[in-house]
């Protein structure tokens, strides 16, 4: 019996090890022909088995980048450098172009190293390349899906805009996941309406929010157009039961295609062979539908793809619902804000006024034109940081406070000091509300600014103060900028520093411009350049105020402003001297008759004899009250404006007290009589002294 050959046994063992290896192995000669392969290689579905023997790589793997593999193997053969886990993509069958569209995509990893035969002086006489092949198609597909999901998490929901969010989804899915994708949302979702809970009927209108195709072509339903999916289709069923539908192989004899032949013909014309229909819902509230199609890629959608599509739909639904809620709240807040703002500035003789208000994504700006006593007017612009209904309501409180304080005839600096106290109380209330369980308000720091101007058309004097607000602009009638510096004060509600006023005497026809920073500031905007541009726009004599407002919108407001923008323009007027009469009397009750007589003469000169009786009573009561309870000289001023104004000033700050006189009292009825004869009356305080004023309506066809 012959002993076994140890060398032969060793070779047999190696051959068995090679043949039984779980990983596919090929051995290529110097001509890149397959000279041997193991059983795992023969079993690969994407490459030929024993038929590969003696054939070149280009013939063995036509669906793969054979030139790339050949160059790689030749380099390994020449240099001996090992290549590990090089990934390639290809497919079964002939390769038609760089994108594999006519067969399933296969992903392989290749490991290559050089084999040498011979020993001693014969070393290296025979060389070959060993190629290890592993099919990682499933792992690569899983990695691709994870990468797509990661991209979706990074990109979907970057804005609070429904259409933009929908577009972000289709940009993620096409072409990496689908050949075409569409997003349709319920019409009420698109319009920021209430949530739709439960299933959706087949005839419920949806609006196309986004679509994308691999080819870049257009679909029959364009973005923004209403559409219905009809009855008994995968689309209507998904909307009805809020469950996805996976169609791996679309057949021409599908019953639901026969029910909608036009849509069926469309799918056939595009060569669609697989699709997924996935509803978008948040907490049982249906928002819309996403649909993914494949026509260029041969492999159909599978369950793993459906799982990814559901994850993408959930991500998109959350972002769309957030955008819907934001748009709904913004709509309510904007409506509330518009309701709380004046629809049209009141008509006053001191100024002509016009305004623009552009709601943005943040802020609650306000403006006001407030008639004051003595034919004066207050111009106010403010800016409150924050957004939403709560910010709009707080803005309304601030505006109401300004009007209330203005009715007290406070100077601008004192008005802001009082308003600052109000803002501090509002800030405390907001903080308490924000700390309450389930609170919807923001706990962010209260921050508001305000600018107040008071203009007197008799003296042509302007007084202004500001709290953390931009400077006003003044343009003279010739279009030149008038220097006017209002001392800066702290924002409302955040500091203890006081406010200071600035005054200026204005020529007739001066334009005053009050604005919020949203008009000139913003992301990526040069505020100084925009302010210079606003100067240039306003320095155009001959244009109406409304034309100037429109020009500012066209030139300064971006397409999608991130902040509210307000511009309040006023053109000043001077009340002519013939419409004002002033007398000064000593503190002697004997002059009351003189005051009545002079008032009567002035009324006759103005053609206001119809007001003679009531005016003489008012003058008599006010002058008597000033002499009796005041000190120093008494001044009587009459102004013929849109009303007849009678003012009596003295040098004491003692406030008059209106009371109901008893039947046995000899006095105490003066102010009550003044109130009955006047449409409005009140008290205005100066640094020293006070003024009691009364207004009466002018007879028809009379006026300054």
Low-confidence segments, given as residue ranges, are 95-101, 436-444, 663-667
The CATH class designation of the largest domain is Alpha Beta
CATH architecture of the largest domain: 4-Layer Sandwich
Overall number of structural domains: 4
Number of distinct beta strands:
26
Separate helix tally: 18
CA-based shape: elongated
Q: In the CATH hierarchy, what is the superfamily of the largest domain? A: PPM-type phosphatase domain
CATH topology of the largest domain: Phosphatase 2c, domain 1
Ends: how far apart? Answer: 142 Å
Reported for the largest beta sheet, the result is: 7 strands, antiparallel
Task: Briefly note the structural class of the backbone.
Answer: alpha+beta
Which bin fits the share of residues in helices? 25-40%
Strand content: 25-35%
Cα-atom Rg, whole angstroms?
A: 42 Å
> What does the average pLDDT come to?
84
């Amino acid at each position: 019996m012959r002993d076994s050959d140890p060398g032969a046994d060793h070779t047999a063992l190696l051959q068995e090890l090679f043949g039984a290896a779980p990983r596919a192995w090929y051995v290529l000669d110097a001509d890149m022909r397959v000279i041997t392969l193991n059983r795992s290689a023969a079993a690969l579905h994407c490459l030929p088995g024993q038929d590969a023997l003696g054939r070149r790589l280009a013939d063995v793997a036509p669906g793969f980048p054979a030139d790339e593999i050949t160059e790689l193997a030749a380099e390994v053969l020449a240099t001996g450098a090992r290549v590990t886990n090089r990934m390639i993509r290809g497919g079964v069958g002939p390769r038609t172009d760089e994108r594999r569209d006519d067969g399933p995509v296969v992903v392989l990893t290749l490991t290559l190293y050089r084999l040498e035969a011979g020993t001693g002086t014969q070393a290296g006489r025979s060389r070959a390349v060993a190629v290890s092949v592993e099919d990682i198609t499933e792992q690569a597909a899983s990695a691709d899906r994870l990468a797509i999901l990661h991209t979706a998490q990074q990109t979907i929901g970057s804005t609070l805009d429904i259409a933009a969010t929908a577009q972000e989804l289709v940009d993620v899915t096409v072409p990496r996941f689908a050949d075409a994708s569409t997003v349709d949302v319920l019409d009420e979702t698109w319009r920021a309406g209430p949530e739709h809970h439960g299933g959706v009927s087949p005839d419920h209108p949806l609006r196309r929010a986004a679509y994308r195709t691999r080819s870049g072509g257009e679909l029959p339903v364009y973005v923004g157009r209403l559409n219905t999916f009809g009855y008994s289709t995968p689309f209507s069923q998904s909307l009805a039961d809020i469950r996805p539908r996976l169609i791996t192989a679309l057949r021409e004899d599908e019953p639901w295609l026969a029910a909608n032949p036009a849509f069926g013909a469309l799918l056939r014309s595009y060569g669609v062979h697989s699709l997924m229909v996935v509803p978008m819902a948040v907490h049982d509230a249906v928002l819309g539908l996403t649909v993914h199609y494949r026509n260029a890629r041969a492999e159909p959608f599978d369950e793993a793809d459906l799982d990814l599509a559901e994850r993408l739909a959930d991500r998109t639904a959350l972002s769309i619902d957030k955008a819907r809620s934001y748009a709904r709240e913004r709509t309510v807040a904007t409506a509330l804000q518009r309701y709380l703002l004046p629809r049209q500035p009141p008509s006053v003789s001191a100024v002509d006024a016009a305004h623009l208000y552009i709601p943005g994504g943040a802020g609650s700006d306000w403006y006001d034109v407030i008639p004051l006593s003595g034919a004066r007017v207050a111009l106010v612009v403010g800016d409150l940081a924050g957004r939403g209904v709560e910010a709009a309501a707080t803005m309304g409180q601030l505006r109401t406070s300004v009007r209330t304080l203005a009715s007290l005839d406070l100077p601008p600096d004192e008005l802001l000091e009082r308003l600052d106290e109000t803002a501090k109380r509002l800030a405390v209330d907001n903080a308490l509300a924000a700390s309450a369980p389930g609170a919807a308000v923001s706990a962010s720091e209260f921050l508001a600014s305000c600018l107040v101007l008071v203009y007197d058309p008799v003296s042509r004097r302007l007084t202004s103060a500001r709290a953390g607000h931009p400077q006003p602009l003044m343009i003279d009638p010739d279009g030149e900028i008038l220097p006017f510096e209002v001392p800066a004060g702290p924002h409302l509600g955040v500091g203890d520093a006081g406010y200071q006023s600035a005054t200026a005497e204005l020529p007739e026809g001066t334009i005053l411009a009050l604005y919020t920073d949203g008009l000139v500031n913003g992301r990526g905007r040069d505020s100084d350049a925009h302010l210079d541009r606003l100067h240039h726009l306003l320095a155009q004599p001959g244009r109406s105020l409304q034309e100037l407002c429109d020009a500012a919108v066209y030139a300064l407001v971006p397409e999608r402003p991130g902040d509210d923008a307000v511009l309040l323009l006023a053109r000043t007027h001077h009340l002519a001297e013939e419409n004002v009469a002033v007398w000064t009397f000593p503190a002697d009750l004997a002059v009351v008759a003189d005051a009545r007589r002079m008032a009567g003469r002035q009324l006759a000169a103005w053609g206001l004899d119809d007001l003679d009786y009531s005016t003489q009573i008012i003058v008599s009561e006010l002058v008597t009250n000033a002499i009796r309870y005041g000190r120093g000289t008494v001044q009587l001023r009459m102004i013929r404006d849109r009303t007849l104004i009678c003012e009596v000033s003295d040098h004491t700050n003692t406030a008059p007290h209106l009371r109901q006189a008893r039947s046995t009292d000899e006095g105490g009825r003066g102010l009550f009589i003044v109130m009955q004869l006047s449409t409005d009356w009140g008290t205005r305080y100066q640094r020293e002294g006070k003024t009691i004023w009364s207004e009466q309506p002018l007879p028809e066809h009379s006026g300054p």
